[in-house]
Amino acid sequence: MRYYDTFESTCGGILIAATERGLSGVYFNRQKYHPRVDADWKRDPKHPVIKRAKHQLKEYFAGKRRDFDLPLDPSGTAFQQAVWKAIARVPYGKTITYGELAKRSGFPDGPRAAGAATGRNPIGIVVPCHRIVGANGSLTGYAGGLDRKRALLALEGVGRDLLSPS
Q1: What are the C-alpha distances in Å from 125 to residues 1, 9, 110, 134, 140?
Q2: Is the pTM of this model over 0.85?
Q3: pLDDT in tens for each of the 166 residues of the chain?
Q4: From the candidates 87, 129, 139, 158, which is the catalytic residue?
Q5: Are 34 and 82 in the same domain?
Q6: Is 129 one of the catalytic residues?
């Protein structure tokens, strides 16, 4: 069973999903790989993980939270899980390249594969894939859209040179 609710952020609407074990999804409306809410999903704004996630997201968007403290239950391959764990360790207000992410994930020869796994991250913001940038420091790829990536990095105080549109 998957539980869900929605949240309105400064970057647009967000679908929050959880299982009994933890947070399984944070998706911007109309983002790439957005799941379809099926009949086996149950809307539950009082689900403890969803309730905590909404509170922490509200603090994050208000500039009052830098780290999330939530049980996570993303669904993915062993490789994807390794990449997502490495992404989760990128500090607030910092960026790393896909190449560095591949190294930190234990796959130094796989920056493209790490990029593909990053794009499939089901727990955006909480697992901060917006902090991963191209080899030359440029903003590349983000399932939620580059405008949102730019806005999230700006919220975290990332330098203006990185944030200017190409």
Answers
A1: 23, 11, 23, 18, 16
A2: yes
A3: 999 999 999 999 999 999 999 999 999 999 998 989 999 999 999 999 999 999 999 999 999 999 999 999 999 999 999 999 999 999 999 999 999 999 999 988 888 999 999 999 999 999 999 999 998 888 888 888 899 999 999 999 986 555 544 4
A4: 129
A5: no
A6: yes
